[in-house]
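Worked example

This section walks through a single chain of length 751. The input is the sequence exactly as stored; nothing has been trimmed or padded.
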Amino acid sequence: SSLLEGLQGAPLTILFASDNGNSENLAKRLGNRGKARGLKTMVMAMDDYPLEDLSTEENVVMISSVAGQGEFPQNGRNFWEGVKNSTDLDLASVNFSVFGLGDSHYWPRKEDKIYYNKPAKDLYARVLTLGGKSLVDCGLGDDQDPDGYQTAYNEWEPKLWDALGVGNVEGLPDEPPPITNEDIKIASNYLRGTIAEGLLDQSTGAISAADQQLTKFHGTYMQDDRDIRDERKAQGLEPAYSFMIRCRLPGGVATADQWVQMDAIASTLGNETMKLTTRQTFQFHGVIKSKLKPAMQAINKALMTTIAACGDVNRNVMCSSLPEHSEYHAEVHACSKLISDHLLPSTTAYHEIWLKDENDNKTQVAGDAVQDHEPLYGPTYLPRKFKITIAIPPHNDTDVYAHDIGLIAIKGEDGHLAGFNLLAGGGMGTTHNNKKTYPRTGSLLGYVSKDKVHIACEKVMLVQRDNGDRKNRKHARLKYTMDDMGVDVFKAEVEKYWGEKFEEARPFHFKSNIDTFGWQKDENGKNHFTMFIENGRIEDTADFPMKTGLLEIAKAHKGEFRLTGNQHLILSNVTDEELPKMKEMLAKYKLDNTNFTGLRLSSSACVAFPTCGLAMAESERYLPELITKLEGVLEENGLRQDSIVMRMTGCPNGCARPWLAEVAFVGKAYGAYNMYLGGGYHGQRLNKLFRSSIMEEEILSIMKPLLKRYATERNDGEQFGDFCIRIGMIKPTTEGKFFHHDTAEVESDEE
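Given that input, the structure is written out below as tokens.
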């Protein structure tokens, strides 16, 4: 039949349940293709569809992904409950089909295989029971297939068209290719997009999907409060959208005045808390759209900026905090600022969008506006995010191996900074069960003097700009570029761009990647206090007025603050004269307490719920509870003081750098985590999967006896990660591409 004959075609209702957009995009594409074949298509979320109309439909297709342990995504749960529990729904006159998006290895244990594509299977079976007539068998998309869910989908869709009698339509229009991040960047006019217009739209708390990608380059992400999604939906309201803002703070050093200003921003424009991030900067949450511009301007007035704190550019440059050697720290910190400034994007879009006042004059203070072109980045910027960190031996408190570029500061014979060993190709993000993705530790390329380090970093970044994968964002980080090219070829390419050669790496030694808590005196007689800020969250609670205390201290403090890469805070450069007053204030607000277990002091967690849209499980809100449940065993076995690096993230993107921890828990579904063991104590070795998708009861049943064994069987000075490898609990991960090899748990392939 021809296209014209199909114009009066049959109706087709397409319902989707989708958390991350895959099912929704598939449904919309199917709707467009149906229209092109002459069908009268309607596409909507399952929960937006009036269930009482279902029995009157002629043709219905339902597409669902999987959430949690075989559950429906949030916007399909009410629909499913209605279909599942209905006693009078008669679907005898309804033709239907179902397609599911799942991952057959997401729940690897045999007893958990039931969760694979469970929503689609359950829905298909239930509609059949209610009398529905199947157009096509239930399609099951599997992330493990060569093309992911598309493999099964590409077989299922033609059968659907055949069943609907529109399989042989001629003259179908060419489909536009899907819009990619690269397209968005090119079309954005150097990161402008329609951000300015979107900020003025008062009809929604959100901004467009394309602008959500672009605002990352400006240092802000759109989020919503996941704790109240269902409640707002029931009230007919859109999600409680707000924005996270991240500052750019090279080396994590802030003045006392800046602290006061950051506190005011959190109190008046955010959710009254601040997060000290694992990348040594301030992060604000809960900033609603109308307060976004005032917040950006306030940050700028504090002589800080947020540009390039996120996005496909070089982000905040980190630097070891080193309270015991202030002059040396200052030299190294100056390099972090030099690199940060050198690699800053040049676009004036940031100043135009955020820093103009009502009279259209720029109110910019921090940074110099320049004309619009990107000499380093070009119009498409980098293929993916790019991160640089500096560690000062013997402290690896910034996880130097975990970043695109890791710089290890080398002290000269005169006691001053001479240069850096340069590591390249570290990176943390992975995707659960996608073995083509993996974390990687940086490879040592050689030594570079301090006066050339910013140029060497630039050339590494440019080789990544020109060779990184721009087609597949899951394969776009520098770590994959280096493994694809080979380290030697990559290094040679950097040297070609640079016109110089790396020198031979200098010797260095790391002892740990945690912070040194309490008071320390530097070589100039100044005092520094490293305080414990659990998971970096600065807030007031009924029994701990931390935020208020830090504000009062900042008002009285004449020195600076240093944010650490482990999310803690150093009160820096306190003179002996000021020392009694500072000690008194710290005690008054309970900020002088560092009497925690070594496990708690060495722990770290990302934000996760309720604000992070990527979170699959709790992290910041749960890790402290889990540690509390383990502390009894630590006390009983004499391990109270022992440092064991434990980290938790709500998803596998790895913001708290879990893959380098001695023991890590990475969110898989709400309440369920993958457990990893065997990371190197000073961040030099990746860990490996020990158990998949385990809940608290199982975590405790593994950890408690293991900690007991560690107390009784360890060798002198043996760290927990090394111990786990020696006793055969886990195999060591020698390099990133072997991260998935020899895991302790073999996945069951049986259905």
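What to look for: Residues 696-713 form the longest helix (18 residues).
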